[in-house]
Amino acid sequence: MPIVLLLLLTFLLPGARAEDAGMPPSTTESSSAPGQGLPEEAAPGEQGRALDEEIQSLKKDVVDLNRELFTLEEELLFPANTQLAVFLSMDVGELFALDSVQLRIDDREIANYLYTPREVEALYRGGVHRLYLGNIKAGSHELVAFFTGKGPNERDYRRGASIRFEKAVGAKYLELKINDRVRRAQPEFEIRDWE
User: Fold this and answer.
1) Given its phi and psi angles, is residue 180 left (phi above 0), alpha (psi -120 to 50 degrees) or beta?
2) Which residues pair with 99 in a beta bridge?
3) Range of the domain at 134
4) 73 and 103 inside one domain
5) FRET partner for 186 with CA separation of 20 to 30 A, picked from 37, 40, 98, 165?
6) Which residues pair with 193 in a beta bridge?
7) Is residue 31, in this structure, part of any structural domain at all?
8) Which residues contact 96 (CB under 8 A, 6 or more apart)?
9) Nearest to 145 by CA among 102, 110, 179
10) What is the CATH number for 136?
């Protein structure tokens, strides 16, 4: 048994001794007469129930700590004053079937995502995909997005869209939106700045 589990069991089980777990006896234990200062023996069912409750409590604490660590990690890796997030959304998709999106900022590729049919279906139903989350310095930048898929008449289709934007101190959010323009029988690709 790993030593951590042995230590945990030693503390959790009433009346458990280090010798029972195969560990040397602790030198800090005081020698006392049998039965003196020891808790009364609990019934086996009660002891098991108490152990289950303790384990569930420990599991909950681990989940809470994990959540806090994830939040701290996000704040450290992507501080709000340099954060850039790019989201993708689309409408019904009758004129364009999305396969992939490539993102470039200032001629540097930052994301390249290949969509599964299930993900595309979720986008058709109103879902929004966070395509990119990263850090960028303040100043003027250009975002270029390339969309690849099947266009009208099931032909291979590749189009691009770009936007110049100013990154100030604080988080910046951009949205890539794919729309069907029925009148022109063509899909339309736009990039919006969420103020």
Assistant:
1) beta
2) none
3) 83-194
4) no
5) 165
6) 174
7) no
8) 90, 147, 149, 150, 151, 157, 178, 180, 187
9) 102
10) 2.60.40
What domain count does the chain have? 2
pLDDT-based confidence at residue 144 (cuts at 50, 70, 90): very high
Question: Looking at the structure, do residues 100 and 65 belong to the same domain, yes or no?
Answer: no
User: Same domain, yes or no, for 87 and 73?
Assistant: no
Highest mean pLDDT among 67-76, 140-149, 162-171: 140-149
Note the pLDDT tens digit of each residue in 75-107: 777 666 788 999 999 886 678 889 999 999 999
Tell me phi and psi for residue 119, to 5 degrees. -65, -40
Residues 6 or more apart whose Cβ sits within 8 Å of residue 141:
105, 106, 164, 165, 166, 167
88 is a domain residue = yes
Residue in 175, 72, 88, 151 with CA at minimum distance from that of residue 124: 88
Same domain (yes/no): 57, 120: no
Using DSSP's 3-state secondary structure scheme, residue 43 falls into coil
CB-based contacts of 13: which residues, under 8 Å, 6+ apart?
47, 51
